[in-house]
Amino acid sequence: MNEIFQHATADPGAVASGPCLTVVERSLYRGAHIFGMRPMARIQVDLGRLEAWPTDRLPLFTEQLLARLPGLANHGCSYRQAGGFVRRLHQGTWLGHVIEHVALELQTMAGSPVSRGKTRSVKGKPGFYNILFTYGDEQAGMAAGAFAIALVASLLPEGLGEVKGLEKLGVQMPADPQDADALIRSLREILRRNALGPTTASLVAAARRRGIPVTRLNEQSLIQFGYGSRQKRIRASITGDTSQIAVDIAGDKSLTKKLLDEAGLPVPRGVVVRSEEEAVGAARRLRMPLVVKPLDGNHGRGVTTQVRDEAALRAAVMRARQHGRRVIVEEQLPGDDHRILVVAGKVVAVAQRMPAEVVGDGFSTIGQLIDRVNDDPRRGRGHENALTRIVADDAMIALLAKDGMTLGTVPGVGKRVRLRDTANLSTGGTAVDRTDDIHPDNRLIAEQAAAAAGLDICGIDFLSPDIARSVRETGGGIVELNAAPGFRMHLEPSSGRARDVAGPVIDALFPRGRSSRIPIFSITGTNGKSTTVRMVGRILCQHGLNVGMTTTSGVYFNGHLLKKADASGPRSARMVLRNPSVDVAVLETARGGILREGLGYDGADVGAVLNVTADHLGLKGIDTVEALADVKGVVVENVARRGFSILNADDPMCRRIARHARGRIVWFSLEGGARMAEMLRRHLLAGGLAVTRDPDETGGTIVIHRGEERIALMPASEIPATLGGIAEFNIANALAAVAMCFAHGVPLDAIREGLRAFTSSFEESPGRLNMMERDGIRIIVDYAHNPAGLIALGQVVDRLRGAHGRAVGMVSIPGDRRDCDIVEMGQIAAGVFDEIIFREAPDGRGRPRGETNALLSQGALRAGMPNERIHRIVDEFEAVEAVLCKGRPGDLLVILPTSVEKVWRQVQQFGSPAAAGEQMVPAHV
Fold first, then answer.
1. Which residues does residue 214 pair with via DSSP β-bridges, in sequence order?
2. 340, 416 Cβ separation under 8 angstroms
3. What are the ATP-grasp domain coordinates in residue numbering (predicted)?
4. Residue of 33, 509, 558, 742 with fewest CB within 10 Å of its CB?
5. What is the per-residue pLDDT across 826-855, written as a single tens digit (0 to 9) for each?
6. The whole model's pTM is what?
7. Helix-strand-coil percent breakdown of the chain, rounded to 5?
């Protein structure tokens, strides 16, 4: 935790001028991130002149804060015991640290208990802090952060409480930030709006206890458990395995009763009618009392019991027809109302339900008694609490009138006044657990009823005078089947033992030994990510798996493009993991997504860091290669315990990352054979895994090492993407792909065939070493957008350069890179090409027109390239045209595109009768 502030020179009587707290940016981490593994909200603030005001210098601040949020006294903070945070307040701590604790306490008080947080200074930016805290609900978490900032600022001395940038958090602020109760009420309302119902919430909790991934698919109750082809979906207690025919049967009460009767199960006699006259006629053939209910109703709506005469019957039919055109009139079975829950053919819970009622005290009206019952904190609106509030409506007033009472009646002491005909919890009823009491006959009848309807999860409304005795003996039977039964009465009965009814549902969806997860391969690095993803994807397809894949060019299924986009972030990863056709996910995982939102999954089976070189530095607080390595290291830090971390032994940053990698480390290296590093030899002597390129004159042999065992897989030159073994960067990518697939258990033959089938064609790997040839001119299109990438491409250019031809390049680099990186790109280009056309990214990335080209030119001139061989064109397509026009037989033209697909199309059509459909012929090396 943070060290205590020391400000010996500050003057407590002075309030300096200048800005106070400013909100700089925000993030919601949904997966593991650079600060930790838990989902967290991050708010970066600039304390400005508040940096000179720790809490021990703020008069009455601590006292006022604790008066509004006394629960802060229980926060242990770094002392790990109650009172620790208060101790820090008195000693003096950052206001960012205070905001962190207030955000946690506000959420806890609102009903979403959270306790983890951290506040860290931003390196190189004095006064800047990242405030991080866990959340239960995303919207409530960010609102809690905004409310915490506003509350803390409102308690500061005059002149110090100004806050800027709060609108960046996207939160509607209450009128009085010092009113902690109002802040908590606002958070509670957000939680209420976003909360899952008790049934769905219990299933989600049960899945998480078993380590099953949970994804909420909409704002209601549609939930995905698991990933890809191993997923299951639920909506409340309806599962993906629930038969639609079974649901239709349960929804037709008349059909349900017919099927149950034909199965020999006890059901009441009755008929379906459409009018009062039909009901009166039918009643003559039935035994009183009767029950009248809509044919397709639910939650007890429109149900009338104890119908004993024609007038009551007509009124009951009118009430039922308000909820459906057809009405059931049937004999009322004897006994109390029970709900029996059957899951996967077995009874898992029984609850005896009692209708809503009040008990007279001799001086309170029925309306006042209802209000008193509703004061029970367990009662809430709808299904949000264990019990539902009792609401006076027309049905209640009619029932009271039948007994000669109104809401203003004062019942005598101890008199029980029934307020509902039915015992549904949704109308204010209560429940008593009777699971241990049910008679075996009644259990069997319930299980047979669920089977007769074909329901995997079935709520059976069962009337019995005594559930502990056989209904064959006492009378009673089944009155209804429910295809989407609520679990609330079993999870939190009014009395009796609570039952874990969600666990059996999850066990039925995912029997023990069946995984809910598909394998996840996550690949990061500065260069080579897309190519390696495609290599791994091709190998796994060769192995017979359906592969979902994300790259910077899109989301793919078995190599077919589903969505064109830069799909290297967490949102695209989740898209693949939601696809029910995907057997294995291969994910390009770029630094931007990790910084913005964290990982898009909760753990990879195989994670790889290919390399870490200087790129994107100076962006999002990442200013050094070491910091960039920390970001990319998140991938291997979150590999499953029994998974594999694949790392480049030739890269010093990858060797640094290895200290924190999880799972079993597998190294790959271009330096095999006699050149193998001592570190790698020790790794193999200890029984480790590695994949190396053992050198020879044709590009070397890919060798798998398992301890002291040596498996020669194939010559690197047999992989088309290596251009006969000269493209070393694709050999390195192939080594990583082999390491990932072999570690995961893919057969050697599938690895070989997958790599032999992998080419660098545009269709296979757009923008990655794509080559074409026409009229003796060879053209390469490659997305080498940083110095390391251009150096690697330069090695290929040197090998392909004709004896008498020139190498002409169109070179660029994104404008958001540092000046020194842009200049270096120009210097490298001067060493690779005989003539260069520099061009700029389409949007300039914040730089004025021409500035990037000027810096690139500066680098090329510094490297000694004559000015007459340097050309500057801002527009990408004009620059491509210029390069193509310069080509002569024997030349090698190299184009580094931003708009890969459009540039490739431009190359195909250049200098030929394009209208006639002629295209350039793919080059042969």
1. 225
2. no
3. 257-510
4. 558
5. 989 999 999 999 998 877 667 888 888 899
6. 0.86
7. 40, 20, 40
Kindly report the number of other CB atoms within 10 A of residue 104's CB atom.
27
Residue 714, pLDDT above cutoff 70: yes
Collapsing DSSP to helix, strand or coil, 810 comes out as: strand
Region 890-896: what's the mean pLDDT? 91
Alpha-carbon 283 to chain mean position = 56
> Are the C-beta atoms of 101 and 75 separated by less than 8 Å?
yes
What are phi and psi for residue 869, nearest 5 degrees?
A: -95, 5
437 in any annotated domain = no
Q: Does some domain include residue 367?
A: no
Number of domains in the chain: 4
Co-location of 904 and 807 in the same domain: yes
Q: How far is the C-alpha of 244 from the C-alpha of 430, rounded, in Å?
A: 31
Separation of alpha carbons 166 and 179, rounded Å: 18
Cα→Cα distances 81→74, 85, 112, 285, Å: 8, 9, 21, 73
Same domain flag for 25 and 151:
yes
The DSSP bridge pattern shows strands 835-838 and 807-811 to be parallel
Q: Tokens in use for 694?
A: 């053992």
Of 499, 826, 764, 525, the C-alpha closest to 651 is 525
Alpha helices in 591-647 (DSSP H): 591-597, 625-632, 634-637
Name the token pair of 482. Answer: 């429910």
Q: Is 560 helix (H, G, I), strand (E, B) or coil?
A: strand
- 386 pLDDT band (50/70/90 cuts)? low
Distance CA 85, CA 76 (A): 6
Between CA 764 and CA 242 the distance in angstroms is 41
* 747 prior amide bond cis, ω within 30: no
- Band the pLDDT of 667: cuts 50, 70, 90: very high
State which of 303, 331, 359 marks the end of a domain: 331
Angle, vertex CA 888, rays to CA 882 and CA 891, nearest 5: 95
Q: What CATH number does residue 543 fall under?
A: 3.40.1190.10
Q: Are residues 170 and 296 in the same domain?
A: no
Cα–Cα distance, 249 to 263 (Å, whole number):
14
Residue the block writes with tokens 């149950």 = 260
Question: H-helix or E-strand containing 577?
Answer: helix 570-578
Length of the chain: 925
CB neighbour class for 463 (10 Å; exposed up to 12, middle 13-18, buried from 19): buried
Instruction: Give me the residue label for tokens 């500066």.
Output: 858
**pLDDT of residue 913 exceeding 70:** no
Structural domain contains residue 210: no
In whole angstroms, give the CA distance from residue 615 to residue 783: 14
Judgement on whether residues 102 and 71 belong to the same structural domain of the protein: yes
Q: Which of 577, 642, 575 shows the shortest CA–CA distance to 607?
A: 642
* 803 found inside a domain: yes
Contact 673, 662 (CB under 8 A): no
Q: Work out the angle between the directed axes of helices 198-209 and 502-509 (0-180°, nearest 10).
A: 60
Q: Which of 706, 288, 480, 176 is nearest to 692 (CA)?
A: 706
Q: Which two structure tokens, joined as six digits, stand for 76?
A: 């242990």
Which residues on adjacent β-strands are paired with residue 557? Answer: 548, 560
Domain finish residue from 756, 783, 814: 756
Spacing of C-alpha 104 from chain mean position: 21
Reported as a single tens digit per residue, the pLDDT across 691-709 is: 999 987 777 999 999 999 9
Which of 101, 114, 116 lies closest to 152 in space, CA to CA?
101
Q: Which domain holds residue 128?
A: 21-194
**Cross-strand pairs, 811:** 838
Residues 752 and 775 in one domain: no
